[in-house]
Structures are given as C-alpha cells and as structure tokens.
Amino acid sequence: MKNDLKENTFVSVTEKLTFEDLKSVIDGKCAAIHIKEFCSKKICKIVSKKLLTHSSRGNFNKASEIGRIGMAHYEIDSPSGFDFYYENAIANTWQLRELFEPYLSPVDKIRLLLEEVWPSGAQLEMLYGKKCFVGICRIIEPTIELLAHNDRLDRDAPESFQAKSLITQLSACIYLQVPEKGGGLRLWMKEPEDEMEYKKLRSGAYGIDIAKLGQPAHVIEPENGDLLIFNIRKYHGVAPGKGRPRINVGAFIGYRSIYQPLTYWS
C-alpha cells in the first residue's frame, strides 16, 4: 500500500480555485481544496427540496444504500447499461442544469473555472468516441456510513485507452445539504499498490472496513454550499451522521499532464 504521511498534507481552505491548489492535490501535498459557500445557501435550500422529490431519483446499482439522480459511469455493468449511459449522457447533464434554473449550476461553474485556471484548459471526457455525462447528484441518508474505497476510471472502462491514459483522478463535490451532526468526508493519504491488493482488502464488498486502514488523515465536515476537491485514487469514505440527508452534486476530474486539458465526467 502506498502511504503519504499525515504531517506532509494539508487542507487548503480558500476563497477561489487556483492552479497551484489543484496541482498540490494532484501531487499529493494537499489533501483537499475547501471553498466555503461555493454555491449560496439560498440556492442549496431551493434545489435540495427539488432533488429529494425528483421523479428520476433512484439508487446506485452497485451501492443500493446511496440514492442518485443521473447514472454514473461506475454503474455500467452490461451492454445495455453501456448504451443507456451514453444515449442519456447529454440529457442527464441538462437535467441537473435545469434543476438549478434560473441560477448557474455549481457543476457548470466548476467546468468554467477548470477551463480558466488550468494552463491547457478543460473539457468534457469522451470514451469510445462518445461524450460522457457530468453532474451526478448523490443522496445519502444521514446514518449511512460509506466504506473506504478508491475510484479509477480504468477500472470502470478497462478497454478504453483514454481511461488508461489518466495519471490520477480527482473529485469535485458541492454539498447542497449536510447532516446536522457528523457525516464528514474521511480521507486517507494512501492508495493500493495494485488492483489485486484492493480486491483483497475489499473482501467482496464495495469498500473496505476502516479498521484495515487505520484512522483517516483528515475528516472534513463541510457546510451547505461548500466545495471539496480531493484525490479519489486515495482511499476516502463518509462517516455516519445525524439529522438531514446528505446531498451533493459533482464531477470527477481527470489529469494526464500539465500540457493536456483536464477532463470531467460522472
């Protein structure tokens, strides 16, 4: 297991997104970027009500305890699932955008900022010559604990050269509603050496019991409207909470080199 020492990492609490902070997360020096009230609390309250009762609300097929609106690439597990994801990618992207109208969707805001602050810009991810969906919503009941896990696009799309070309993968999460207590994001500054080690630690579950990893290096409890960006190649999970469901919207961010555009998808 690859390890980074806790004392060598920090959480950057800042007012705006910068290239320097993004590069620090990519390089493993910064555990997370934390931007307070990236989306206004007023907008969060309005949109959260819509999301909780939305007709398209469902659950992840590989993690049924997590609600979602929009299909994640992670869920593709059959040829029909592949077709459904890509045939609905742009419609699902617009679905979230329309839920925020007449306000700017915070996912679109992230897309614009990445294009502006990254030297080579940023663009929508394309796999197999098809445009991906971006802007998934996750809804988690407060008492649910998400086990430690890591995310890799090349695990979800093993036949894609584009997926295999990624050097690392970040997540941008905007928290529209958080539990009244607890429910923090747990970050471990370590990742598996390879897929064999990861599968062994998982023991058949979608994630890993934290007892196998030790205490997380950081636990971040965001407030409504906050943005967190962190490296999801490293283990991460969510602590249980009390009170309201946890609702976030967001995107994955792919890094290949400083000379190539960042890409984003869900």
Describe the protein's architecture and organization.
This protein has 266 residues and is an alpha+beta fold. 26% of the residues lie in helices and 31% in strands. It has 8 helices and 20 strands. It starts with a strand and ends with a strand.
Rounded to an integer, what's the Rg over CA atoms? 17 Å
Helicity, in percent?
25-40%
Work out the number of β strands.
20
In CATH terms, the superfamily is: q2cbj1_9rhob like domain
Q: pLDDT under 50 segments (min length 5)?
A: none
Task: Give the class-level CATH name.
Answer: Mainly Beta
In a nutshell, what does this entry contain?
With 266 residues, the protein is α+β, with helices and mostly antiparallel strands. Helix content is 26%, strand content 31%.
Record keyword descriptors for this entry.
266 residues, alpha+beta, Jelly Rolls, ten-stranded mixed β-sheet, 20 strands
Topology:
Blueprint: E1 2-3, E2 10-14, H1 19-27, E3 30-35, H2 41-52, E4 58-60, E5 63-69, H3 79-87, H4 89-100, H5 106-117, E6 122-124, E7 126-127, E8 130-131, E9 136-140, E10 146-149, H6 153-156, H7 161-164, E11 168-177, E12 181-182, E13 185-187, E14 190-191, H8 195-202, E15 218-220, E16 227-231, E17 236-238, E18 241-242, E19 246-255, E20 262-265
Parallel strand pairs: 2-3, 6-20
Antiparallel strand pairs: 1-14, 3-16, 4-5, 5-9, 7-8, 9-19, 10-17, 11-16, 11-19, 12-18, 13-15, 13-17, 19-20
